[in-house]
Fold these 2 entries.
Entry 1:
Amino acid sequence: MFIKHSRLDRLILALNSTFLILAVLMVVLPLIYVVIASFMDPSVLLNHGLSFNISDWSLEGYKKILTNPAMIRGFGNAVFYASAFAILTVMVSICAGYALSDDRLKGRSLFMTLFLITMFFGGGLVPTYLLVKNLGLLNTVWAVIIPGAVNIWNIILSRTFFKGVPKELREAANVDGASEMKIFLSVVLPLSKPIIFVLALYAFVGQWNSYFDAMIYLDNPSLHPLQLVLRSILIQNQVDPSMISDQLAMAEMKKLSEIIKYAAIVVSSLPLLVMYPFFQKYFEKGVMVGSLK
Amino acid sequence: MLAPALILTLIFKYGPMYGAIIAFKDFSPIKGIMGSEWVGLHNFEKFLSSPNFTVIFMNTLKLSLFGLILGFPVPILLALMLNQVRRAGVKKNIQLLLYAPNFISVVVVVGMLFIFLSPTGPINQLFSLITNEPIMFMSKPEYFRWIYILSDIWTGAGWASIIYVAALANVDPELHNAANLDGANLLQRIRHIDLPIIRPIMAIVFILAAGNIMSIGFEKAYLMQTATNLPTAEIIPTYVYKIGLQAGDYAYSSAVGLFNSVINVILLVTVNFIVKKLNEGEGLY
């Protein structure tokens, strides 16, 4: 670097750092607040706010949340939905992307147009709901997993990826007498680990964090994923009475329900937040590939 | 190999498009989609002439328009700022922190809003130094849009900056060196070197955002709605859900949804056309 900074430049750079630090604080402080609050003694939190005195801390919220059957079941359901959804999405997108990346496929642009239209235009909520209902998927796990499995963005991502795989590899395998299926399975797929990983991560996180499909398609509470359980705790204020013993007065219940909320936020968000730094470069890769058409 | 994707698309994307004809019918579940009577544009007229129409339409438009105006520049500014951080390790860590909220679910974000903005919550505890009365953030219609948009920026701006950061990383440092030798200061270099590089991406991001103006998230608005903030919080997607799936008026609800989709497509095409004119032929398509 040969850049010489004038006084004005240095002033701007100083301002730049200040604003960046402010931005980071704005993002991080609410999260830190939630984490600390989740460890607080409920009555101290309500009367005095945060305290850094260890004796004012308690694990009450976590005890309640980690022993709550709805929460545990929701967690399990979410793991299942997110994994199944990720597997299905990856399979569908990889196959379609591979086919569309091949020059020999006739009518490629027609298929692409057919897919692209759905990116900008859809039938709407009610017709989609009626369709799922008529297919008999209502109140089954399939309603959450199947309808969203085909995603144009993912197909474009994998098509772009496969276009980058040298044709010569496939041709060489062909000369060696490998069938199309064999070429795909033993030559192309092993090279596709990055794209598979990226798509699976995106699908998993997306499904883990969503509540809408489950809300409209699943009436049965035992099928509810974590986000729906959280919704009833955080937003509808329906703290399960079994979590708070009846002898407690209303005021006590209110205090406790606040702590339970904080603990629920931490318990549900922590797995992703802890894992994401390790996967950050893959997420970034996904955004990049998607942006370069 | 295309078959699974094709079949799923035909069933789950084109199927509902076919189903959308119930918007033109007096739909009765017993008679089914084909058997119901045609009523032409009756359901659309019903929506357009209902007293709700102006309010809900304007709510949708304002929420996303203001969201676009306030939210669009933030990721660009963040990226330009991050680009000035010379130490790679520091930059990486800042990015790591700025992206984090993107991985928090809508339910949790809205849950946090309710906790933080409650009359006894931390924000009101801060404000109590200035005002005596706690501010009822979540129940007053006048605050809804601000809370929605600002929390959206909090959640997504860092993540949205990735794409600009990546583009800026491709800027040849020689360009900056040369400009610096010619006496250009930092702001001039950002304006004449960095900005033109990310301009095509800005155009595409803008078109996509503008094309989605009417389809702003059901998920968040619905969760943020309270009994009293509805005058500003009711938007077309939440209205469609309520009259359709909750009240069971399928045909009318489909008409409203379809109306929304059509406006979306018109907006997308228009914005793409305008941006293309302004941006030397660079549009989305």
Entry 2:
Amino acid sequence: MITLIKRPQPSKLWTFATPVLAVAITMVLGGLLFALMGKDPFEAIRTIFWDPLFHEQFAAYSRPQLLVKAGPLILIAIGLSLGFKAGIWNIGAEGQYIMGALAGAATGLALYPMDAWFIFPLMVIAGALGGFLWAMIPALLKTRFNTNEILVSLMLVYVAEQLLASASLSWLRNPEGNGFPGSRNLSKIEAMSNPELFAGTGVHWGVVAALAAVIAAYVLINKHMLGFQIKLSGESSRAAGFAGVNSARLILFCLGTAGALAGLAGLFEVTGPAGQVSIDFNAGYGFTAIIVAFLGRLHPIGILFAGLLLALTFIGGELAQFMLGLPSASIQVFQGMLLMTLLAMDIFVNYRVVWTSREVAQ
Amino acid sequence: MNFGGIDPVILLASLMVASTPILLAALGEMVVEKSGVLNLGVEGMMITGAVCGFIASVESGSPLVGFIAAAAGGALLAMLFALLTQVFQSTQVPSGLALTLVGVGLASFLGQNYVGVKSPLTTKMPIPLLEDIPVLGPILFRHDAMVYFSLFAVVVVWAVLKFTRAGLILRAVGENHTAAHALGYKVRRVRVLAIGFGGAMAGLGGAYISLIRVPQWTDGITAGIGWIALAIVVFASWKAPRVLIGAYLFGGITVLQLNLQAAGAKVPVELLSMSPFLATIVVLVVISARSKGAAGGPAMLGRIFQAR
């Protein structure tokens, strides 16, 4: 029979091996799912994971898209990972992302048609601030009243979605838009746009910010006292208390940083790839980033790779939808399965699985 | 009686309809949490129930078959969570989130050919004699069977938890799994059963939306109700009668804001639509501030049980 023995320390080897294994297992399970739907599983998996990068016809378009999609995912996931490490569950990144986009876009549009160099940087600050303040709501409620941050941050996603709808229908609507919902096209206004920095690469300011966040998080976690406190709180909040960690300050920091980064992601998206504030502007990055954070093992470098992989599933999913008629929801199932497989395999990280015969079992 | 185009009798009757999905899901989740497990996948299980119920009732022509399928679908999806948390010892918070992601995707995937299809109508089951009571009759006793079932379920869950041996074991497992294990109770088995029950109830709640309240299938039909159900368990301090109060309170807000929208109130529609979520936050704050956190919450909530 199988016995589980708790490891004194999480296994280093399995920590690195499980994400890779989880991807492989999810591919098999996903293949089975596609086969059940009557599609050729090999073709489907190839279309999702290989063609966006190497297909002679599509790769030229989809390769830059990889960075466009990975940018916000990585930016948000880095922020979330800090909280997750400390046992602070910010599930509302989607709302913080929306609020960042709204605050940034509103700041820019308030200055329209002014044309000055400082408008875009101002919008960036407003975007980060929008997400930060939105995340401060669950953070302050948690530190003040011990209100559950999971539920509050999530409720605020639905509130933000309604604010987004109201913005695109009324207070940010393009006055020259012939009554269609949606704001002015920010990507077409030079002072407010977040253009591709190097032609054909997909790199825009959001991607740069994502890379900067990866480096900053790496330094914070490994070299800074605050990073140590985050890790300590996650392992044992009691021990952290004895070590003099101020848990309220940690909650404010983790949620605030996550909110600011999600807000930045929203701002860079609305001024670049999305172009305008519209009702369906949010694409679920805030939720997918949760998967990215876990798949990346809450480690900055891991998150970088996980972000690229999840971006690939987005692009490959679109391609599979277009080429094979796979429903777009099947990619969501796929992404969810990936997280589940990974969580299931955590058992190898935290436990030694030993076969024992019944007779010897203590 | 008529206030600004809103008839209070119809309002209260539709309150019961709007509250039933939340009530069913929250009641199920309360039992799960009583066993010491925090399943954040309610939204996913609800929407899976909604789509399973819809498909089964369209294909069979019977709403009853639909509800049975919904309960089965919800419970089956919940077994994925049980597998993760009870067999593979995964952390419950991300596992629940994963369940929601899978559930929402799966539902939209299964339901794609059913958008715009009509489901068979559920007949009302007015209760003889009682339905003729003025005012109260139309409010309370002219509903479909599921409304009565949900009220009945509150009584049963309350009584089982309070008075039976099974209820005692469930609570013991949730309060102290090590002690319960030492006494020889099967901690994992109890929890798996509770998770399954929670999934079935969430499934029924979801199907109530897709079969009776809306009645049609659209992507994202549960629209956050599963999360409100989770908040209501906290609001109710893990007590069945209070789950009823909480669900009806929030159903009331939902119905009221919908009626105000329909009546063309001079409040922005978006503000009305976000009001149930804002109200949930306010209530959570009040409850947490008063009780200094999760008072009445099972002590082992969210902890991983290791059998030695």
